[in-house]
Amino acid sequence: MTVDPHLSGLAGTIVHDAIVPARAPWLHHVAAGQTLRIVDLEGNQAVDFLLYAAADDAERYSAQDTVAAQGNLFLRQGTVLRSNEGRPMMTIAATSVDYHDTIGGACSCESNTLRYGHHTKAQHACVENFLEANLLEGRGKRDIVSNINFFMNVPVEPDGSLGIVDGISAPGLTVDLHAEMDVIVVVSNCPQINNPCNAFNPTPVRMIVAA
Amino acid sequence: MTGTLADPHAARDHARSMAGTVVEAMPVLPPTAMDLPADAHADDLLWEETIAAGGYATRRLPRGARLRLIDLKGDACASLLIFNAEMPTERLNVADTVKVQWNAYLGEGKLLLSDMGRVLMSFIEDNAGLHDTFCGTSNAATNGAKYGDGSNSGPHPNGRDRFLLGVAKHGLQPRDVHPCVNLFKGARIEEDGAITPQVGPFAPGRGAVPRAAMDAIAVIANCPHVLDPRLEWTVTPLRATAWRGPVTPVEDPIRNATPEGLRAFQNVEDYFRR
Question: Which of A73, A106, A143 minimises the CB distance to B134?
Fold first, then answer.
């Protein structure tokens, strides 16, 4: 019997294990106390990530509350992912990548027209994935807010310059998220091909939930 | 007192006797402003209001309107939400605003972008230079922890609860409250990602003038910056003045300053092609 290296160090019983194909959405309810592990299977694959409180989905992840509460832009081990009411939703229990982004937002058909030109409007984008997944549960455009980009690197220079640059992730690297409340996780496995966030080549990721 | 106001006529007279009272934070109707720029006519004035320390205000502004915000005493913090007035599901997107412009620091010439790839507002003037796109605003929990009570009904209102009231005045709901920008307070980012708040107090009279590229609803909360390190809840009044102005012409230098910004203006012009 071979040992699955992606399960290394993950305590508890595996209750869900899915491969999210390149460019696809993913939605899953994670109960308080469970741990979600995201595996960057092939390296430098941005995982755009939103959270909603299962009890009331008007409460959702807030990038601004999260970075203000910790006084730092980067999401690292120990970062508490906070809601728009300031409450802890999940905690980054472990990460084999130094830090993750939450200021770069999600690509959309519309923002692609600004960043790259109108020739990219027809390309698939993360906001399309967020909408498709959220619509399954009655949420819509008003429910899409600034997200997390796991495995994505957005440095800010002293003059305020920022940009999505080459990733600092690699094949098999992981992030473990401990649920502090019952949450709905909505993911877009980023389909962007016009910047380095996916090394110009979107690839699958693996989502494992342990209870 | 209760005795003399026991009948409706006395109560009416008492209420009417307040007319004409002038306080620091209030709207001026009809709007008047002695300090309009030379290219603005008094007839085009739309709004003149001083927003209280800890208060909020909202306004629907027509395409082309100039919104001048003045930090009257050097310690205002104008937290700003913006909606497309005719389709409020379209709203300010702070992430796109900083990503598309390849820079996080707002100032003269910078754009505030919607989540539909369009310009909501652009800064035609700014002499404050310090604004914040990262930290968002305070909430009941943060103000409660810092000041003991963060509620709307208490002495230390928080920005989020102000926003909830402000959007409700336009029929909108909590899920319409989106990430905001803070004008007049800065947030410098260190190499390791640490956020250094720049909260002043500053010289009185700093101003910024965003220009509406679309019919817009602006919701403004004036509460202390969420990372204000001062122990005391500290904020001063904010003056808002708005007047009608021309729609951005094709030769406008801000429109044409960057290829990304130009496409955002072209998307606005396309939206209004009707």
Answer: A73
